[in-house]
Amino acid sequence: MDAHPETVITTLVDTLPGGARVLDLGAGAGTFPYASYPALDVTAVELRPRPGSAAIESRRLVCASGHELPFRSAAFDLVIAHWLFEHVDDLDRTYDEVGRVVRQGGLLAVAVPNSHSFEDRLYRFVSHVYKYAFLHFGKRIEHVQVLTFLSVNDALYRRGFRLLRFAVEDGGYCWLEVPQLRRFRPGILTVLRGLRRLGLDPFRGANYRLLFQRAESTGAGGGYLRPPS
């Protein structure tokens, strides 16, 4: 599986038959270019859509929360939940809703940060500094859930999913997008490149991408894969 996010999703979406029902959950601007797949029945869900985003302009957007989805059970052949679970306030109900709307035999594509990684710890630290030290008290702390490869697997396994494959990715430096840090970005990246040349990369293994399938029966056997040590 290619580690580049667009390649991962488009490669997966390319395998779907015409008429397949796809839910892009926590879509943001749109996880993949919907217009390039006119044969698919795509629905995007975002609780706080950004004005002018591709998801809005596609006219496929439904404003809803991940823990209360306005869709019938087993409605989708593929659900995409990229960079969603770490943001939700009610994680268990979100897992329940995802399990409810994926049909038996359907797919679930997940991307999550490794909350034990240096990057995610730094991201949460920077978020708190931005909110409290810079007095942006109205800013929501984004990564409210602590997630690991095994915790996500366990939660979804108990809801009838089985892991098909996964990829481990290095960090994407999303914490550098905090407005007060942007002017320091070139210098920080220079330091990080220097560390890499020395064989030191504190952002290695910061994220996971996982592809699950909803078992035909929740009592189906099998375990889940483990990440490489």
Characterization of this structure:
The two termini are about 20 Å apart. This protein has helices at about 5-15, 55, 90-100, 120-135, 150-155, 185-195, and strands spanning about 20-25, 40-45, 60, 75-80, 100-115, 160-170, 205-215. The protein is an alpha/beta fold. The protein has a domain at about 5-115 and about 145-170 and about 205-215: Rossmann fold.
How far apart lie the N and C ends?
A: 18 Å
Strand content: 15-25%
* Biggest sheet layout: 7 strands, mixed
Share of helix among residues? 25-40%
Strand order in the largest sheet: 3-2-1-4-5-7-6
> In terms of structural class, how would the helical and strand content be classed?
alpha/beta
Overall strand count: 7
Query: What pattern of helices and strands is seen along the backbone?
Result: HEEHEEHEHHEHE
CATH superfamily of the domain at 5-114 and 143-171 and 205-214: Vaccinia Virus protein VP39
What is the CA-atom radius of gyration, in angstroms?
18 Å
CATH topology of the domain at 5-114 and 143-171 and 205-214: Rossmann fold
CATH hierarchy, class of the domain at 5-114 and 143-171 and 205-214: Alpha Beta
- The total count of helices amounts to 6
Which word captures the global form?
Answer: globular
Mean pLDDT: 83
Low-confidence stretches: 1-7, 218-229
CATH architecture of the domain at 5-114 and 143-171 and 205-214: 3-Layer(aba) Sandwich
